[in-house]
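B., you asked whether I could sanity-check this one before it goes into the benchmark set. Here's the sequence:
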Amino acid sequence: MPPVGGPHNPVQLNCGIYNVPVPNENAVHSLEHGAVWITYQPNLPPDQLATLQQIVSTHYVGTERYLLLSPYAGIPAPIVASAWGYQLSVDQASDPRLVQFITQFAGGGQGGEKGGPCTGGIGSPLYRGRFSIWPAGRTIAANVTDSVVTYVVAGSVSPPVVRAAVQKAFEPTNADGSLATTRSYGGLGHVPSPKA
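And here's what the prediction gave me:
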């Protein structure tokens, strides 16, 4: 089972969606800061995984997100959600208790370090979700696969505004903190994902 507390690495795991297993000791540090870690059996059906990704990407808490999603071999249920000191097992991603668990614990103080960072640590999560461009409030639908961010912009938005929105929503993972240059804007565009 994924741990729900105890000794851990001094560096937290960056919150977000992972498609590979993550180190327990770094994930536990994120739990201490208030993250909820949702793990799933590696053979989880694709429709269930898509539902989990949707749930996570639409329930991020603030800029730190406070949600982790990763595969975890050997768990006794298809899906296990963990917070510091708490755990929930469910058979289906659509089980309403999963969102209730996230709502109750994500960003909470159960680990003793409420508000601690869930970014700036280790790990390069994938990102899926929607976010707004400020101050206009236009929405970009974004998806990351194969190291490319694909986004669709609603309405006409200038390139610097798109770049600023992408940089705000997708944490740069280059060692120097830089984000790759956007190649096209408006309609459908592509942003090469930063390399670690």
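One thing to flag: The CA atoms of residues 130 and 141 lie 5 Å apart. Otherwise nothing jumped out at me.
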